[in-house]
Amino acid sequence: MAAKGESILVVEDEASIASFVSLYLKNAGYGVTTAPTGTEALRSLEREQPSLVVLDLMLPDIDGIEICRRIRQKSDLPILMLTARDEDIDKIIGLEVGADDYLTKPFNPRELVARVKSILRRSVPERRELQTRQITHGKLEIDAGRREVQVGGEEIQLAPKEFDLLWELLDHRGLVLTRDQLLERVWGYTFAGDTRTVDVHVRQLRRKLGEASPIVTVWGVGYKVAPARDAAPA
User: Fold this and answer.
1) Which of 1, 36, 76, 141 might form a disulfide with 29, Cβ 3.0–4.6 angstroms?
2) How far apart are the first and last CA of the chain?
3) d(CA 172, CA 69)
């Protein structure tokens, strides 16, 4: 069951989807508010402080990408994005602006509830307060307490799950982590989830970190961190 007081804002213009998503979330113990448009969603966010937003990508006025971007300008409120198109580009764009996870329609509502629970479980303040360590790997510096990443002294902006994935891999240097292990450790899934989620985040990390990216693909298994390359002397 949900922790007492946890509430979800469901932003979805299809009434039937909003209705059954709300039903399953309420049955799981969450308080639920719905908004059929991006404008109403932004108004609701000004009035209330939900624990998480379930956000449809395609809305009749302001699209989900823009809503996500505006939320991220003010807070790290967890966001689960819904997309009707099973295309990597939509997912990558959603993750780029700071969505924590995504689901492609049609989806099993029980899986949606499971993902909501895992996102909330992994975003509690107590967990972040415990992460006060720093890791240096070549030109890459990552501060878990501040949730900051720098390459050669320049800060790199990462989405929440991109940061968590990078930290998990660096924290297990020397080990190969399977996609299922990463889903469990980073996303909190205790079931066989969609491992493409991991691949999309890895691609984003490689693009943002460039040559400083330490992530190596172990074909047929998962990912690991390559040995650090020391910066060449000036």
Assistant:
1) 1
2) 57
3) 31
> Long-range contact list for 109-112, CB < 8 A, 24+ apart?
109/20, 109/21, 109/23, 109/24, 110/24, 112/21, 112/24, 112/25, 112/54, 112/80
Which tens digit of pLDDT belongs to each residue from 128-160? 444 558 889 999 999 987 889 999 989 999 888
The two three-digit tokens of residue 211, written as one number = 């040559």
Which residues in the chain belong to E strands, given as ranges? 7-11, 31-35, 52-56, 79-83, 101-104, 134-137, 140-143, 148-151, 154-156, 177-178, 215-218, 222-225
Residue 54 dihedral angles phi and psi, to the nearest 5°? -95, 115
Tell me the C-alpha distance between 188 and 124, whole Å. Answer: 12
Which tokens hold the place of 224? 């690991």
Say how many residues make up the chain. 234
pTM of the model: 0.62
